[in-house]
Amino acid sequence: MDINTPVSTIYGNSSEKYGEIWKKQVAELQAKFGTAIEEVRLPREWPVEVPVVYVRKESLIAVLDFLRTAPGFEYGFLADLTATDEEVHPRFEVVYQLLSHANMARFRVKARVAEGEEVPTATALWMAANWPEREVWDMFGISFSGHPHLRRILMDERWVGHPLRKDYPLRGYQIFPDTPAPKAELLDKGDR
User: Fold this and answer.
1) Is the pLDDT confidence value at 1 over 60?
2) Is this structure's pTM higher than 0.70?
3) Close Cβ partners of 106 (under 8 Å, ≥ 6 residues apart)
């Protein structure tokens, strides 16, 4: 089997079902945002199941907002937000998985981020981006500028490092024999 062999799911073959829609949407994105669109990977041309659009991080929020609200796109549901450590320069890719409830199509947006660079938060577009952005920061060390409360979400706040980086030691255990008292500011604000 190769990338040109259609793979059907319980929903049918996505390339056949959405192929022309995706091509039209990608062409419209490229026309509207020009060089902000760094690269496009379409199904049947690349080993991907949905379109993958690489966006310059400076234009990320504008592109996401357009995909979310523009007629014919309406990718209003942020299904997932994560990152990958690619071990090249720029080192990381922040990944946004979008779903359109209008036509049940999916779309993937990626932004390449170098070590120490920040990505603008998507919490103004989707409040649901709050915790996944915190998880990406906790696990990879990628910071989101403008985030309302960026802090560790999975690891102890005393943890040193970011466990999903590929250079993190496989047995990088850190033991904390005591449990710290909750911080007063968190008790007042709640954990948002």
Assistant:
1) no
2) yes
3) 14, 49, 50, 79, 97, 98, 99, 100
